[in-house]
């Protein structure tokens, strides 16, 4: 299997060279890097599957690039995340290839390079066992994100700048945290960290590592790059960022728990509360956004919060020395990670197809788009239902486990744990309710609603490879739920380095029945639901056919999601913006909703054909928007001192070589002194 790993990395190198050498001039050359990437992702999935069976896989990097003794090692945890990341990367790569072959989609070199760099970085991050190999790959992934978000010419540079700025914050936190651990263990090898004693330095390093990975997954308050960055990336490359690459952040959190084991209790509680707040803030903004790409992007923030909540439950279990609680928390978080990877890849792939056909992602212009774009519309509906957590989808199983994990608070006697768990449980329940509102809007108005004004302008749906990708991802969202017990067995094997396999495997009560690790608490059978619910639906339909005597189809037909007033047509119909207005009111304190009612035209009554052209017939304009509170009150006040610091730093850039050498010497001495002090 080591040869397969080498072959996968080699294919990604060929994909990078293909973009640099062949460019984008020829139509046959544009999809080539993505097809090579799909082949590499297939090989990496095979490597991960072999690693889950316990097959030893190790690629030695001794003395390569000056890192010293280092390896790329696939243990069970690495294998699990290789399978999660690259199994969805295969259809996403096919969608990218289908998108790239269309004219005027890729206008310059660099995008495929960023794609190949991202995939290679993910593979190295997940398998690295050396501090500097890991950090090198992490910084490479940050550069790849920057290239993706900055690729589109003519767009504002702000998303790319915010993305790379917070990416550097993430890298700096990881660098300092890992160096603190290396100074304590006197080794740059990850396995050496497992024997470190519980000290203040170790706890500080633990917190820094969690911070570094939290930036990548989008945890409040370092989530602001995610909606901007995902929105700025072109086409299905958003799925590469949101469905594939983001998993390295979750892997980092899981690996930190595997290496350092017991976290400081205060850190576990802080992560738990931040996860709940992130979930609610993310879904609140997703519910009221008017752009489809931004809705999907903000739902990534919500899912990051949900996954982090499960991880925090596991941290509390580790702090309280309760392996079953570790198991149920990590199981819920991993199930949610899988559901998010599938659904988010599907949603962004479908969004790319819709944007390609219509030229817009504005929800008010996409009403009823599913009537014409059958594959993209169906993919959008399945992805939305999955993230809404409805039965028969992967999202239902993962959210059930997450809520069950939070309900285990009574097993902990300390109020410092039980109260935060209760608060977070309420936040997650509220999040689940608003998620239904957010994605019902997508399904009801965007996919199934009355045809919008752009319906006549729609071009063809995505091509054959894009349709294959949508079909595979949509089937994955449904099939994973149907075989949930098998999925739990695979996860139990992958979590072996953190929690005993038997502890996680106790979630399987019977061949097709699940329970939240603790026996006798509750049970669920997603597999039977996949059989029973369609059977009940078919039975109800059959009864209607038998007893209606032909009258079943003799009903009055109206477009779905009509306004309450029956005859409303055109631009006065019920729109996605109006659908979310109650949410703006209910969550006004979270969203800082601002509304303004003003007179549009008083002199003539507003229109030339107005039957009452006087002041009494004046038309009113109503606007309502929301504020990103974290950005408004945390980051914007920092802009002025940051600009002052930048102006001061510019003075150091005097162009003199001796000055730059002096700066390097000062930095080297400072780092050396820090290491000596900590050692």
Automatic annotation (TrEMBL):
Primary localisation category: membrane
Signal peptide coordinates: none
Topology class, membrane: Multi-pass membrane protein
Segments crossing the lipid bilayer: 33-52, 80-101, 113-138, 158-183, 204-225, 237-254, 266-288, 308-335, 380-403, 423-448, 468-488, 528-548, 660-678
GO cellular component assignments: plasma membrane
Entry's localization field: Cell membrane; Membrane
Domain of life: Bacteria
Keywords assigned by UniProt, alphabetized: Cell membrane, Membrane, Oxidoreductase, Transmembrane, Transmembrane helix
Recorded GO MF terms: oxidoreductase activity
Pfam families assigned to the protein according to its UniProt record, in alphabetical order: Proton_antipo_M (PF00361)
Domain NADH:quinone oxidoreductase/Mrp antiporter transmembrane: 128-408
InterPro entries attached to this UniProt entry: ComplexI-like_HydComp, ND/Mrp_TM
Protein name: Formate hydrogenlyase subunit 3/multisubunit Na+/H+ antiporter MnhD subunit
Originating species: Amycolatopsis echigonensis
Upper lineage: Bacteria, Bacillati, Actinomycetota, Actinomycetes, Pseudonocardiales
């Amino acid at each position: 299997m080591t040869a397969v790993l080498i072959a996968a990395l080699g294919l990604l190198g060929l994909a990078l060279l293909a973009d640099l050498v062949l460019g984008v001039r020829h139509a046959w050359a544009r999809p080539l890097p993505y097809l090579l990437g799909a082949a590499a992702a297939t090989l990496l999935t095979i490597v991960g599957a072999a690693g889950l069976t316990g097959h030893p896989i190790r690629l030695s990097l001794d003395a390569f690039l000056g890192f010293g003794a280092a390896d790329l090692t696939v243990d069970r945890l690495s294998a699990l995340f290789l399978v999660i990341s690259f199994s969805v990367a295969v259809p996403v790569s096919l969608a990218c290839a289908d998108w790239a072959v269309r004219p005027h989609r890729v206008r310059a070199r660099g995008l495929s390079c960023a794609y190949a760099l991202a995939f290679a970085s993910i593979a190295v991050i997940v398998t690295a066992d050396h501090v500097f190999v890991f950090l090198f790959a992490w910084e490479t992934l940050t550069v790849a994100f920057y290239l993706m978000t900055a690729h589109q010419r003519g767009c504002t540079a702000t998303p790319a700048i915010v993305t790379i700025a917070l990416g550097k914050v993430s890298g700096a936190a990881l660098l300092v945290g890992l160096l603190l651990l290396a100074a304590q263990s006197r080794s740059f090898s990850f396995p050496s960290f497992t024997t470190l004693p519980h000290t203040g330095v170790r706890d500080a390093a633990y917190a820094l590592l969690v911070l570094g990975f939290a930036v990548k997954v989008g945890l409040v308050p370092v989530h602001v790059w995610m909606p901007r960055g995902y929105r700025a990336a072109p086409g299905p490359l958003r799925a590469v960022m949101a469905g594939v690459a983001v998993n390295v952040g979750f892997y980092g959190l899981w690996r930190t728990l595997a290496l350092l084991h017991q976290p400081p209790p205060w850190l576990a509680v802080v992560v738990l509360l931040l996860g709940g707040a992130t979930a609610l803030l993310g879904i609140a903004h997703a519910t009221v956004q008017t752009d489809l790409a931004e809705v999907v992007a903000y739902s990534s923030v919500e899912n990051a919060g949900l996954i982090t909540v499960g991880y925090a439950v596991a941290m509390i279990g580790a702090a309280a020395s309760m392996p079953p609680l570790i198991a149920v928390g990590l199981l819920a978080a991993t199930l949610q990670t899988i559901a998010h990877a599938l659904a988010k890849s599907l949603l962004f792939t479908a969004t790319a197809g819709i944007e390609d056909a219509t030229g817009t992602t504005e929800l008010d212009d996409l009403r009823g788009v599913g009537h014409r774009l059958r594959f993209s519309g169906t993919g959008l509906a399945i992805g939305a239902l999955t993230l809404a957590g409805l039965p028969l989808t992967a999202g239902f199983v993962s959210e059930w486990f997450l809520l069950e994990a939070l309900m285990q608070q009574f097993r902990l006697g300390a109020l410092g744990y039980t109260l935060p768990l209760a608060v977070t449980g309420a936040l997650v329940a509220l999040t689940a309710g608003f998620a239904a509102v957010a994605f019902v809007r997508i399904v009801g108005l965007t996919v199934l609603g009355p045809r919008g004004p752009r319906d006549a302008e729609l071009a063809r749906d995505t091509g054959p490879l894009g349709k294959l990708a949508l079909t595979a991802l949509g089937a994955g969202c449904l099939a994973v739920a149907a075989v949930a017990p098998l999925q739990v067995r695979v996860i139990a094997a992958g979590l072996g380095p953190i929690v005993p396999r038997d502890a996680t495997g106790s979630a399987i009560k019977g061949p097709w029945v699940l329970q939240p690790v603790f026996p006798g608490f509750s049970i669920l059978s997603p597999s039977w639901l996949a059989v029973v619910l369609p059977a009940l639906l078919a039975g109800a339909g059959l009864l209607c056919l038998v007893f209606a005597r032909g009258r079943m189809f003799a009903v009055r037909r109206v477009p779905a999601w009509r306004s309450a007033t029956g005859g409303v047509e055109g631009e006065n119909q019920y729109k996605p913006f109006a659908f979310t207005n109650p949410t703006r009111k209910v969550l006004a304190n979270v969203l800082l909703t601002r509304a303004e009612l003003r007179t549009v035209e008083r002199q003539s009554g507003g229109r030339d054909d107005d039957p009452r052209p006087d002041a009494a017939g004046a038309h009113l304009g109503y606007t309502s928007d929301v504020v990103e509170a974290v950005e408004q009150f945390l980051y914007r006040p920092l802009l002025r001192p940051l600009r002052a610091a930048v102006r001061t730093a510019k003075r150091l850039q005097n162009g003199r070589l001796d000055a730059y050498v002096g700066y390097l010497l000062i930095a080297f001495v400072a780092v050396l002194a820090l290491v000596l002090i900590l050692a």
